């Protein structure tokens, strides 16, 4: 399991989400994962958290583009549906929704990935901690589960805070 650049306390948005081992889900780059299994469902939505340290001068849009590239390796026709820059010059962020198609249960399905990239300066000032919160779900689930990603991100607190 990967490590985050800062220790976070996280709270799942509701009891339907179950903590899972990222490695068992084939997500070795994730530091945290949760699934929302539903009997008979085509796909169990995923919440993941990953991150690392980056150069403080690097544009946060680079992280967003890297996330798109990773998504494009997993789905067909990957594209950015929406991208909004946020934050401050010392702690920039970005939220984006990605779309693509993936073969699930024998047919192509529309998949969405909503991401929130949050950053924070480090003490030395030369690097920036980057944490990426991701929701992966079917397109028709995004309207219901998107707000849960927002709740999940809002629950994140540095340990001891």
From TrEMBL:
It comes from Aeromicrobium erythreum. This is DUF1795 domain-containing protein. It comes from the Bacteria.
């Amino acid at each position: 399991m990967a490590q985050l650049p800062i220790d976070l306390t996280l709270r799942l948005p509701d009891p339907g989400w179950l903590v899972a081992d990222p490695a068992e889900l084939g997500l070795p780059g994730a530091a945290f994962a949760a699934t929302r299994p539903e009997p008979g469902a085509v796909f169990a939505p995923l919440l993941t958290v990953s991150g690392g340290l980056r150069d403080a001068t690097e544009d946060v849009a680079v992280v967003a583009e890297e996330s798109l590239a990773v998504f494009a390796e997993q789905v067909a026709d990957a594209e950015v549906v929406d991208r909004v820059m946020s934050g401050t010059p010392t702690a920039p962020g970005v939220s984006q929704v990605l779309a693509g198609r993936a073969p699930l249960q024998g047919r192509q399905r529309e998949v969405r990935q909503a991401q929130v990239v949050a950053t924070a300066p480090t003490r030395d000032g030369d690097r920036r901690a980057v944490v990426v919160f991701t929701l992966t779900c079917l397109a028709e689930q995004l309207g219901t589960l998107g707000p849960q990603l927002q709740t999940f991100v809002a629950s994140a607190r540095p340990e001891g805070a």
